[in-house]
Amino acid sequence: MDEMQKRRAQEVYSTLQEALDAQNWHYQTHADSLAITLEVNGDDIPMDFVLLVDGEREIVRMISLLPFKATEDKRIELAIATSQANFALADGCFVYDVEDGTIMFRITSSYRGSIISIDLLRYMINMACAIVDEYNDKFLAISTGALSLKEFLDE
């Protein structure tokens, strides 16, 4: 990473903190890795997020690892459910590992050759929180058998 990329990454990291401060979010900074961790209480399951500024690729990435794994007998159903959820999303996606049952949500935005605004970062943060809150309990219910794949798809 060259000096210009380092400087831009630091600027974006500062803007990210401003975006969180503007909404009175409580978060932890990890300046050495240009990361921020954030815990959000949704309607049901608490959500953990990591926001990362990647200076080499010139992107901001927000991820949330869901706090459960799909049981082995429900992994194919979860693969279908996450695929269907992704089809419905305008931004971001669920990343699903069918081998171990982990599910992660990821949303990214590039700042290459542009200025990234507080409004864009606030949109990204709010969108990620809303999407994870919408789906995390449904994916957990499918994993435990409390919700069938058909019921999920019918919604």
Strand and helix map with partners:
Elements: H1 3-22, E1 27-30, E2 35-40, E3 47-54, E4 59-69, H2 75-88, E5 93-97, E6 102-110, H3 118-144, H4 149-154
pLDDT averaged over residues: 94
What sort of overall outline do the alpha carbons produce when their principal axes are compared? elongated
Report the strand count. 6
Based on secondary structure, the structural category is alpha+beta
Order of strands, main sheet, comes to 1-2-3-4-6-5
Largest sheet: 6 strands, antiparallel
How many DSSP H or I helices? 4
What fraction, in percent, of the residue positions are helical?
Answer: 40-55%
| Helix-strand sequence | HEEEEHEEHH
From the alpha-carbon coordinates, what is the Rg to the nearest angstrom? Answer: 17 Å
The rounded distance between the terminal residues' Cα atoms is 46 Å
SS strand fraction: 25-35%
Q: Segments where pLDDT lies below 50 for 5+ residues? A: none
Structural commentary:
Helix content is 43%, strand content 28%. By secondary structure, it is α+β, with helices and mostly antiparallel strands. The protein has a 6-stranded antiparallel β-sheet. The longest helix has 27 residues, at 118-144. The mean pLDDT is 94.
